[in-house]
Amino acid sequence: MCAGPVREWVDLGRQPVSNAFLKPEEVDSETFFRLAVGICADCTMVQQLEPMPTDNMFRADYPYRSSTSAGLRSHFEEVARQLRDTELTGVDDLVVEIGSNDGIMLHTLSAAGVRHLGVDPSAGAAAAAVARGVRVRVDFFDERSATEILATDGPAKVIFSANTVSHVADIDTVFRGVDRLLTPDGIFVFEDRYVSDIVEYAYFDQIYDEHFYLFAVRSVDAMVARLGFELVDVERIPIHGGSVRYTVARPGSRERRPSVARMVEEEARYGIGEHETYLRFGRQIERIRTDLVALLTDLRDAGRRVVGYGATSKSATVTNYCGIGPDLVPFICDTTPEKQGRLSPGAHIPVRPYAAFSDPYPDYALLLAWNHAEEIMAKERQFVEQGGRWILYVPHVRIV
Ligand code: TMP
In which residue ranges of the chain is pLDDT below 70? Predict the structure, then answer.
């Protein structure tokens, strides 16, 4: 947590562990917490007020697999190529990835013969990465594990992380690990969802247990300075509805690009950090809840079949915040074998294999994986050709 005064911004109520897809016998022992975020008056860091303990979330059976999305696969292949061409140019340079999941980024570097190590606490995801030729240490990345990696592998020229740094409430220990492991001229590059996009497009379901922090450039700039580093570059990337790639280095070791000041100014103009911005967001998501429940209820009462598409982590937030259960959405189809045959967290909607979507097609599909909308809609043309319609709910509820 940042050290400043944090004021509550939004309360999304009682929520489960977003990736804890349940076997029927586990329903009674489910863990819940209050999902509420606040904003720091000093540094604008948006953060959870009552965090879920990390080891409840990232267990050996953590089911999320990044490589289920073709869009993410090509994004991370490009990231790997860029790192290899611009930073990992020495024969012995080491790259370490924090939260390497199923090796979606590192497998490209591994195939190119680059010295690498993934660090990920989820044994299942790590096994999938190892099967693709990626070296993985099943562990959390912190000062302790970084010290051990330094002893076995030497310093890292690049430390990379995507959608993971923001998951760690005790972020100081991640940066102490980076400090241990990074070469004097090395860079720590991380990508994460962008709070400006979340606020602008009412992406309230990007708020769930794993996303302890929602980063803005200003808040990351302040955070890394407090932890002894410098934010030297930022770049907007079109991942997960809008993300930012942050490049961090040891102070003075790299030139600070104008992009940092430019985005900090844009955030100030947009009102990141101002209370009214968050009040507006709160009103918008209440409207979404009312409209979505009304639409699903009307469709059910009219005898229409509605199916959920994509048992995403964020679907835990939308289903539990809106009170959507199997009476309104009888099942969610998903391509991840680890989620199939289970019940969705909190809402207890059955998760069925992808094949269930077209057997037969429903009248409406609630697109819970809206962050992959382009890819999914392109793949599911036949659904629409047969008269099917998509239901989208951010930034507002609509049928397309
Ligand atoms: P994410 O939003 O956290 O990336 O999760 C995406 C989920 O959606 C994951 O469980 C896989 C699922 N999915 C499908 O079922 N079909 C698809 O075509 C895509 C892209 C994702």
Answer: none
